[in-house]
Structure formats: structure tokens, C-alpha cells
Amino acid sequence: MTTTLTPSDLPTSAVDPFSHEVLEDPTGFQAELRDAGPLVHLSRYDVFAMGRYEQVHAALIDWQSFQSGAGVGLSNFRFEKPWRPPSLLLEADPPRHDAPRAVLSKILGPLALRKLREHWMADADRLVARVLAETEFDAARDLAAAFPLRVFPDAVGIPQEGRENLLPYGDHLFNAFGPPNDLVEQGNGRVAELSGWVNAQCARDVLAPTGFGADIWAAADRGDITFEQAPLVVRSLLSAGVDTTVHGLAAVLYAFATHPDQWQRLRREPTLARVAFDEAVRWESPVQTFFRTATTDIEVGGKTVPDGRKILMFLGAANRDPRRWENPDAFDLSRDPSAHVGFGMGLHQCVGQHIARLEAEALLVALARRVETIELAGATRRHHNNTLRAWESLPVRVRPAR
Ligand code: OVM
Q: What pTM did the predictor assign?
């Protein structure tokens, strides 16, 4: 990237961060973005960008200056009609954001998840045992995608039929936060069908009598949210709860398949499973980017973001910023990754992170028990998405433990 200075003295990059070249491997662009300065202008989309940990973190916790209510994608809801009714959580600011958030925080909190723990640990063990009938398999498809689809839709309480729509819906949703490029075009053909199915699953009479979905409707009965809000809160679960965990799990499996010493460490100390997952979320950042919108003229690193303009926060770049992290490109179970911004930070920080960690722990503990070595067994293939850092295929070879 050659960065030039605009008249206002702001470093500018002409690189398209949503191009296939950058999506295939964003690390080079991320380094150039960080080195260009604390605030950079992206001329391709005429938006502002931040790649350093300090500024990304500061923006994430300053919801008054950096709003979400105008959308967290490139599209500015002040001027453009959103492609679906905005999320009451992701695409809202206080005070409207707060009641749905409080309801969901409780439903997805550590206390509520204790009921699921035993069942998910046992289910992960069964899945791993079955997959290990072969010593070579696709870890992205057979573990990372398979496990969330076994446990999460049941936990929400949606019917069996149509579950194959969950991943394609999420894939399109996360593409739609980016520019209207070929990835979005490809998804547009099925958007009505997929949205229709997802929205239909949010109705009270479609959901099981117990589960996260039923819990959300019960919150409406109590008056904690309205009956109009309930289906949209269920929609958030179905939107944000599948692809994210699938690609987070793929990230940690890829990390271990390429770091045999770290795998042996996890086998000796399976209590590191949660740290390993957070380190993988830091290292790969399954959710790479989100936008905010300036609510006023905001100073960032001595330069100004004008009122109403979009700012792209590179969570993945911040999570590998050498100004914040020692040896940031290393996947290392010895570090404390807990300050990463892969789940965001502040008011909007991932409300499902305890679910994600429980899924990861269940899968990793089962694997650590049953697998002595895991290595790549062929060419890996990325899945390109405007927001997600994702895997299409991770062929692995394992030696089962005796
Ligand atoms: C939502 C939603 C959708 C996508 C992502 C997300 C990462 C939330 O509909 O609330 O958070």
C-alpha cells in the first residue's frame, strides 16, 4: 500500500479491504494500515479506518461518539434503507439498545449456561468419537461446522426443518456489512427465501416450549421487552450465533493443526481450552471488521472524523497490533489474550461469548482426550466473506490416542 497525504494531512489508502486478494490474507494490508497512522482515509469507499489497538479499543467503548444505530456496515442508515429491519442489539444505541441487551445477557449468561454444559460436553465427545472413525477428515466441515449445528439450534428451540438455511443466511448477513460487491450479489438471489425462513422461526408458536427462544418470549410476558421486540431478539440469535462460532472453532482447529507444541500443551492441560479459544479469536479474529458512525466531529490521533461519516474498525488488525501485543502473530497459550477485541468491547461486546466459549471448550476437551496428534493433510481453502475470516476446508490427519 502506498499511502499518500490528503490536503487535510490524513494518510490515504486506495486498497480495497473487501477485495478477494485482501480477504484471502488480510495480514499484509493490516500491517500497512496500522503503520500508516492512527486514522486512515480509505479512498475506495471514502470512509475512515482504524487499525491500531489503542484507537479501535477507544472507539469501541465510546458509544456516544461512535454510534451503531446508523448501521455497523458500510451502508449509512441516515441516508440508505437497511436491507432488513435493523437489529435491536447490534444496530441500536442506548437507550433503545438496553432492554433487549439486558434480557439477552441474562438468557445467555454463565449461570443459564450451566444447564447446558454437561449435555454439550457429552455431545461433543460423541461427535469426536464418530469423526475419529477416519484418521483423515475435514476439520472445518466435520467438526467446526458440525458441532454448533448439533447444539445451538436445539438450544434456541427451532424446528429441524430448514436448518441448512442458517449458515447461508449468516454468510449473506455478514457479507452485507461490506460494500455491494460480487459476494453480496451472489447472495442476493436467495435473500428473500432465507430471510423468510429465519423470520418465520422467530414466532412464538414455532419455537419449542423451552430454550433461548422461549426465554425471550417469556421476557416479553414479564414486560422486560415488548411483544414486537421479541421476534427480532430471536432473530439476533439466529443471525449471530452460528457462522461466528463455526469460524471461531475453525480458527482454533487450524491453530492447533499448525502448532503441534501448543496441541501437546493443551493435551497436558485441558483446562487451557478456554484460553486457547480466546487466543484463536485474537489470532484469527473471525469477525474482522465493523463500522461505526461519527455522531459529531471526533478527534482521533490528532485528526478529525467529520460528523455523520463511517469509520471502519479493523478488529483483526488491532488484535495483531505489535504496539499492544508481544509477538502478535504467534498463537501462544502462554499469553493472556483476554483484552482482545475479537468479541468487540464495551456496550456491544458479544452477548453470546459464553456460548461460544462453552462450545469451544466442549469440542477441544473431547479432542484433547481422544487425539494424540493433529496436522494438516492437504491444501487448506479459505471462505471469502466481507466480514468473516473463514475456512471452507481444513483437511487434517490425526493419530487417535490409545
Ligand atoms: C444481530 C447480529 C447480526 C450479526 C452479527 C451480530 C456480531 C449481531 O442480528 O443482532 O453480532
A: 0.97
